[in-house]
Specification:
Elements (H helix, E strand, L loop, with lengths): L1 H9 L9 H14 L3 E4 L7 E5 L5 E4 L4 E2 L3 H5 L4 H9 L14 H7 L35 H21 L1
Antiparallel strand pairs: 1-2, 2-3, 3-4
Helix pairs in contact: 2-4
This protein binds zinc ion (ZN).
Protein name: SWIM-type domain-containing protein
InterPro entries: Znf_PMZ, Znf_SWIM
Organism: Arachis hypogaea (Peanut)
């Protein structure tokens, strides 16, 4: 309850499409994206790119929000390759983050509040029986190495006696 109330107030006056944590994450990715070279495939909508760089080239589809590195699909935030392609088409990567990474979702998360609860002494008493705890089944005790050796020796002795008798 405390953390919900705290988080609600924390970013109440924050302006930006993404919350600070997501924003700085994306900034790092954008910075890294400068090392990659986007090459347009020639498609009609200007959405498919081959992204050249080390260790290997990647393929980005801005229309489908996918990259062969799979970062975008997994995190819902454009990867370095996608950011390289987006800067090529002059689009803001923030607009390509999934809605659950945005401030709107953050605000929606902390929109509700929990009902405060008084101490247990003030709780209403039930007229019904208290629930009974289930019976505890005890596990067979595990033997120590020494006990195991003794047991094996005894078993062997019994076997030997049987052999002698027959
Ligand atoms: Zn990628």
């Amino acid at each position: 309850m405390r953390s919900i109330a705290k988080n609600k107030v924390k970013l109440a006056n924050y302006i930006g499409k993404l919350p600070p944590v997501q924003h700085s994450r994306l900034q790092k990715i954008r910075k890294e994206s400068g090392k990659w070279l986007p090459i347009w495939s020639g498609d009609e909508h200007y959405e498919r790119f081959e992204i050249h760089g080390w260790p290997t080239n990647m393929v980005v589809d801005l229309g489908k929000s996918i990259c062969t590195c799979r970062f975008w699909q997994i995190t819902s935030m454009p990867c370095v390759h996608a950011c390289a392609a987006l800067s090529r088409v002059n689009k803001d990567p923030e607009d390509f983050c999934h809605k659950w990474l945005t401030m709107d979702s953050y605000k929606a998360t902390y929109l509700h509040s929990l009902n405060p609860i008084p101490g247990e002494a003030l709780w209403e008493k039930s007229v019904y029986l208290k629930p009974l705890a289930p019976k505890v089944k005890r596990k067979p005790e595990t033997l120590t190495k020494k006990e195991e050796k003794m047991l094996m020796r005894n078993l062997q002795e019994v076997k030997n006696k049987k052999v002698q008798l027959s």
